[in-house]
Amino acid sequence: MTRLDPKIPAGELNGKWERHKADIRLVNPSNKRKYEVIVVGAGLAGASAAASLAEMGYAVSTFVFHDSPRRAHSIAAQGGINAAKNYQNDGDSVHRLFYDTIKGGDYRSREANVHRLAEVSAGIIDQCVAQGVPFAREYGGLLANRSFGGAQVSRTFYARGQTGQQLLLGAYSALSRNVASGGIKLHTQCEMLDLVVVGGHAKGIIVRDLVTGKVTRHAADVVVLATGGYGNVFNLSTYARGSNATAIWRAYKRGACFANPCFTQIHPTCIPVTGDYQSKLTLMSESLRNDGRIWVPKRKEDRLKPPASIAEADRDYYLERIYPSFGNLCPRDVASRAAKRVCDEGRGVGETGLGVYLDFAEAIGRLGEDKVRERYGNLFDIYREITNENAYHQPMRIFPAVHYTMGGLWVDYDLMSNVPGLFVLGEANFSDHGANRLGASALMQGLADGYFVLPYTVGGYLATQKPGSRPSTDGAEFAQAEENVTGMTNRLLSVRGKEPVSHFHKRLGHLLWHYCGMARNREGLEKALVEIPALREEFWSNVNVPGSGDSLNQSLEKAGRVADFLELGELMCRDALAREESCGCHFREEYQYPDGECKRDDENFAHVAAWEYSGVGKAPVRNVEPLHYEAVKMSVRNYK
Amino acid sequence: MNTKTFSVTVRIWRQPGPGKPGKFVDYAVPGVNPDMSFLEMLDVLNDILTLKGEEPVAFAHDCREGICGTCSLVIDGKPHGPNHGVASCQTYMRSYRDGDVIVVEPFRARPFPVIKDLITDRSAFDTIQQAGGFITARTGSAPEANAAPIPKDVADLAMDAAQCIGCGACVAACKNSSAMLFVASKVSHLGLLPQGQPERDRRVLAMVSTMDGLGFGSCTNQYECSAACPKAISHDFIARMNRDYIVASLRSAFTPGPSGGGEA
């Protein structure tokens, strides 16, 4: 059992971060270049961290599995980034952003981390504008804002429907500048396959070059993982196909605790599934809920009728009806569950019955088609490409889909895991979103971690490590980790079974979607805990991975990632089973109010569950970090 | 949901490795659904090949929603396929009919060598970016975001240019393998903004000379680049970059050399 000390600075919530920054030990400028920092991943968190650390003088090595750091999946974020700038004069403040995030997360996140996130949010916008991020502007030349779910203020900054792209290109340009100046050594198409722990500290990684197949050892004074979320465990999700859990999963197997693995966000507005061949689901940005109205027919019999033929009085704008004060802009978990409920009642639209309408007729009447096109044009275009339907003339059909994981490696206030020297940033950690993330907060957290948190806190650790004390890659720990990697590659290649990797990934996805998706219950989870290990066994005896390990082999890459998902999926179900309450995204059918809302159990479950690996075939240990709320009172979330 | 399926033949470029000889191989793909994406059709083919004990076709892909710039197929001679303003991953099988023979190749350009099958090495774009595609704004040194207002039309135009996804279709489409549209989009995005002014000359000179050094060709105004661009970025930005380049060249020619004092 590991004792998890979040190391939250003492004193008033308001001044914690400022005081902590003043207390953190510093590294002398001339010593900084003697420290090697490995950063894995170059999304918003990884690229911003690598650039910032290189500017400070550290010797940074960045590893990405993509062919260019600009392709990390942060690029696909559409809607926007939150910041407590209060440019709209609508009553926003650090406290309000903090409070909305804590409440949105259904009181399962750490107060001190979330407050810091809100504090640094404004600086992120300044930094991005200075880099040339072309945020949307008003005619007067000042920055524009829009609203996102779970907030009653307008604090979201955006660049058309491509905010993630523009923020990432900003961070990528900073990274590129530091590559040119020699501050960052860039390794593309290199996948981290193991963490090397020496004397209890993270001191290196093992990497496979995806083009040559060569496996190499890399030592560092500190290892930073910014490798994103693990939603692809569900197979169908809004993630990029390459997004994976391998880096954090292998770190878990080296001792890093995995926190709240069952907290996965199901986003309410995605394009519905059409067929078995489907490889991914596409998000329709939450920003659409600013102007679009969500509805289904009041009567089951109307569900296949053309939407235009259904009279206004026969439509159920169920979010506006149930949640009048937040309406269509209620948080994601609430909106997704409501969509599931109306579809379960048989009122879902489209052939599969798994869909609801997102309707712009009212907005087009109010604003005109041109204005709607200016705001959301690229999203309407994406919708048309995929569905062959024109959403200016008929409502979009949408359905919830896996979109983000709030769970991730456990980190303390300094973003360091329980393995000293291993820092985890962005979606890869668990820190800020509790049981549900608010829209436009993922970009905020990724950049906060990389630009404004890690650059301070990493020094606190490095100051305890003598310059030049980094171990050699010839050590036994490196050799053992390398053997582990090549052993797994050889095992995958030697099965030569009858089914492609995709077969197992699809089946795992089905199991998790049904038993550990939008609604969970004991019976289903127990069933999944029998079926997933059986599927894993079948994978290892019947998977077919063609080709060899000494050149580019996409089947082999996929096989390694799916092998990890088959283990992680089981841990998610274990976590969901152990958390006998409903909170945020985690809806246990046994624990609900008569109106179907989440029934939390603060007495027994106001904590973070951080799972600790105990070896092959052994049950992992469930460690607990209690959550204390000083500045906010825990209450039943109410968006009505 | 479409239930009517059909069959196509894909004629795919197979090449085992860099510098090795390649060839076209025909594969039949049955059970194609019109709502399938082109890449999902290739997924189906790859599962068929795997089950037959053959090596699947290597192709680059990731986000599958047209924004990461990874996918890079030349379909029937056109980078990113038959439809305007989309990436390969946003090409759907409803563009094809039963019995069609579809030719699939990698992006062809000397600076983009083939790694395997349909995957090319496009790291030259990163090299150009590193030469000057940035505004130097050290973390923590930024002024208040609203301190410098930017007229909406200027910000919008910068965003038009900034949309580039770095896929390289512009290079593949150009008979000269010119990277002018890629470079122009970055030069214009940053050069239009007030924040980009201090490094404007330096940026365009460095990026253009790096582009030339990597073996990309010149622009001869055919505009195939814009036609193939999945974000439909206008070739007008190339003219804009040329103007910037000339001004920067002239200015740098007249900059006095170091005089006595200089930097300490």
In short:
The complex is a heterodimer of chains A (640) and B (264). Chain A is of the alpha+beta class.
What topology emerges from the helices and strands here?
The complex is a heterodimer of chains A (640) and B (264).
Chain A: H1 16-23, H2 29-32, E1 36-40, H3 44-56, E2 59-63, E3 81-82, H4 94-104, H5 111-131, E4 156-157, H6 163-180, E5 184-187, E6 190-198, E7 201-209, E8 215-219, E9 222-225, H7 246-252, E10 258-259, E11 264-270, E12 293-297, E13 315-316, H8 318-322, H9 332-344, E14 356-359, H10 361-367, H11 369-387, E15 396-405, E16 408-409, E17 422-424, H12 442-462, H13 476-494, H14 501-515, H15 522-542, H16 554-578, H17 602-605, E18 607-612, E19 621-626
Parallel strand pairs in A: 1-2, 1-9, 2-5, 9-17
Antiparallel strand pairs in A: 3-4, 6-7, 7-8, 10-16, 10-18, 11-15, 12-13, 12-14, 14-15, 18-19
Helix pairs in contact in A: 3-6, 3-12, 4-5, 5-12, 10-11, 14-15, 14-16, 15-16
Chain B: E1 6-14, E2 23-32, H1 38-51, E3 73-75, E4 78-79, E5 101-106, E6 114-116, E7 119-120, H2 123-132, H3 152-162, H4 169-173, H5 180-192, H6 200-213, H7 224-228, H8 236-253
Helix pairs in contact in B: 2-6, 3-5, 5-6, 5-8, 6-8
What is the chain-wise order of helices and strands of chain B?
EEHEEEEEHHHHHHH
Number of strands of chain B: 7
- Helix count of chain B equals 8
Main beta-sheet strand count, sense and barrel state of chain A: 5 strands, parallel
CATH topology of the domain at 481-626 in chain A: Methane Monooxygenase Hydroxylase, Chain G, domain 1
In CATH, the homologous superfamily of the domain at 481-626 in chain A goes by the name Fumarate reductase/succinate dehydrogenase flavoprotein-like, C-terminal domain
CATH class of the largest domain in chain B: Mainly Alpha
Question: CATH homologous superfamily of the largest domain in chain B, by name?
Answer: Alpha-helical ferredoxin
Give the overall silhouette of chain A.
globular
Number of strands of chain A: 19
Biggest interface: A-B, 84 and 78 residues
How are strands sequenced across the largest beta sheet of chain A? 5-2-1-9-17
Q: What share of residues of chain B is helical?
A: 25-40%
